[in-house]
Amino acid sequence: MYEDFTVTDRWTAEPLHCIWKGTVVAIATRHADATDIRFAVNSRPVWIAMPNLAWVEMKRATSHIITDRLAAQAAGRYLKMAIESGYDNGREMYTMTVDEVLEHCNAVVKEAGSTDSLPTLPVISDDVQIPGFRGELPGDPASAAYFGAAKV
Asked: Counting beta carbons within 10 angstroms of the beta carbon of residue 54, is it exposed (0 to 12), middle (13 to 18) or buried (19 or more)?
């Protein structure tokens, strides 16, 4: 969906390849009450800042939570729309409002059908190896059993 996509810049007609690179709670890095989602746009770093209050409002309004996967997808959808509309002007950081976060989260979930259908986020580095890890997703029964959290 929106963790790895190509979009055409409205003004230059240049294809831009956007790839999710990471999620950082910005309280630690820039003393902001936000969560920053980093994308590489044709290798240029772009950050989408999502206010942490959106997590609270989503829980209050729907009793559902914004997961890491949902936050990355919503930020990617926002970035794609910004580029398509011509709002992207090469800035390194874009800030979403609480309402924008909720709108994009709801749109992503509607598009995917459910949060269970959201794609997993890619491994950032293929060089990272977990000894004995068989490649199953964290949280699935085989991985949970391997790490001692559950029985298969």
From this structure: buried
